[in-house]
Design brief:
Layout lengths: L24 H15 L11 H8 L3 H13 L3 E4 L3 E4 L33 H14 L4 E2 L12 H14 L18 H12 L11 E4 H13 L5 E6 L3 H9 L3 E8 L3 E2 L1 H10 L3 E6 L13 H14 L2 E5 L25 E6 L10 E5 L4 H12 L4 H10 L3 H28 L5 E2 L7 E5 L6 H10 L2 E2 L1 E2 L12 E5 L6 H17 L7
Parallel strand pairs: 3-14, 5-6, 5-8, 8-9, 9-10
Antiparallel strand pairs: 1-2, 4-11, 6-7, 10-11, 12-13, 13-16, 15-16
Helix pairs in contact: 1-3, 2-3, 5-12, 6-12, 7-8, 7-11, 13-15
Amino acid sequence: MMDASCVCLAMRPMLTSVSTASRPLYRRLAAEYVQAMGLGTLQLGEKMPSVRELMRRHQVSLSTALQVLRYLEEQGYLEAKPRVGYFVRDARTPLSGSLALTSEPDLSQPVQPNAQAHFVGINEHISLLLERGRQALVHLDVGGCTPPAALFDHRYLNQLVARLLREQPTLLVQGRSLLANQGNHPVFQQAMARRALATGIRVAPADVLATTGNSEAVSLALAAVAVPGDMVAVESPTYYGLLQVVESLQLQTLEIPCSPRTGLSIEALELAFQTQPRLKAVVVVPELQMPLGTRMPDAHKARLVALCTRYGAALIEDDSYGLFVEGAQPVKPLKAWDSGLGQVIYCQAFNKSLAPGLRQGWMNGGQWHGRVQMLKFAQSRNTQTLGQLVVAEVLGSPTHQRSLERLKMQLKNQRESMARLVARTFPVGTRMSLPAGGLCLWVELPDGFSSAALFGQALEQGIRIAPGSMFSNSGRYEHCLRLACTQPVDAVMEQAMQLLGSMACAQLGQAPRS
C-alpha cells in the first residue's frame, strides 16, 4: 500500500482501503471526515475545522492535524483558500472505500530487458478486439477516448473555415508546390514555433513539420532513428496504437514499468541501456500518460533527457494531452530540457483538444529532422493546408481558450462522476487513480478478474470497454481496463456502470455492490 506522502499532488487518488489498525492516525481521522461528507454532515462548500480545532477535538499534535487536512486536499475532498482555511470540495456521493491508488510496479527490481522484448502479433490481437467492437450493436462506448462533437465549439470552427475559404477560394483545389517547404504553411510554422517558445521549446519556424495527427509523427520519428530489428523502449502500460506502429515497423519493443506517480522508471531504463546495444529510442507521454494519466515531475523529465543524451538514444515525446492538464501552472515539455544536440523528437497533435475531424499535428525531429522530412514526403507527401491555417488561427485565441477551459471542466466533472460510479459499483479490492486532467480512468481489479471476459459480456449488452490486454503484450494487465470519461454521466451511463460492476462482481464471486 502506498503512503500518501508519496502520492503526486496532481494525481488526487482515491482513499485507500486498509484495515483501521494498520493505517496511520492522520489517515484514520481523514477517513472519519470523508464519511461525514458522504453522510451530508459536512456539505459542499462548508468550512472544515481549523488546525487548532482538530488538535483540540482529537487530542493530536500540530503535525498530525496538518497531515489530515493536506491528505484530504491531495485526495480532492478539500480546497485550500489562502488565509481563510480548508473547504469541502465535493461530498455529493460518498466513496465506497474499496478503491485505492493504482498499484505501483516494483521499480526496485528493474525490468529484465529480454522479457517480452518483442511483440508478436499485437497488431492482430488489437485489430480483432477493435473489429469485434465495430461489428457489435453498441449504444454506449466507454472504450474510446475521443471527446464527442458536443464538447467542441463547432459553430466557431465552421465560421472560421467559411471565412478562410472566402478569403482564399482556391485553398482546397491548389496543391502546395515542392518549393513551398513540402506543404508546411509558413503561417502554421510560425504559430507553432511561437507557441512552443512559451513552453520553453526553442525551435525555428522552418523546423516545424506539419503532420496528420500524432500517429504519423511518432511513426516518422521511429522510422528515422531505427531500422528493423532495433529495440524501442515504451511505457508499460501504453497506448495500443503505439504498439501497432512499432510492430508495423518491424522493431522490437521493450516494456519499461510506469509508475502512476512519476511515469517511466528511469532506473529500469538505465539497466536496459546497459544491456541492450540495439535500444535506439524511447517513446514517452510525459503529461497525462495514456492510460495511467501520470504527470511526470519536472525533475524526472530532466533526468530522462540526460539519460537518453548520455546513451545517444532518441527520446520521442508524445505531447498529445498536455493541453488537458488542469491548473494554472504552465506545462513544461521534455523538449524544454533538450540540449543543442537535439536528442528529443517532439510530437504534438490537436485532434482531441481542438478538432477531432482535422487530425492536425506537428513535430520537430531534433538532430534527425532532415531525415524525418525526407520520410514524410516519401510516405505521405504534403499535409493539407486548411487544417494548418485553422489551427494557426484558433490555437491560443481567446475563443479557443474559453472553449478549452469548458472542455477541461466538463471532462473533470465526468471523470469524477465516473470514479464515484466505479467506487460504488465495482468489486471490493478495485484500485484506480484519478488524474489531474485527461480523458480516461485506468482501473485495476483484483487478481483473477478477466477484462477480456468482461469485454465480451459487455458487448452483448451494447457496451464497449477497452480491456487491459490492449495496452501491453506482456499479459500483466488482463485484470485491468480503461474507462473513457468523454460521455455525459447520465441515467444511461449510471445504468451501464451498474451493469458492468455487477458483471465484474459476479466474475469474482462477489455480491453486486448496489
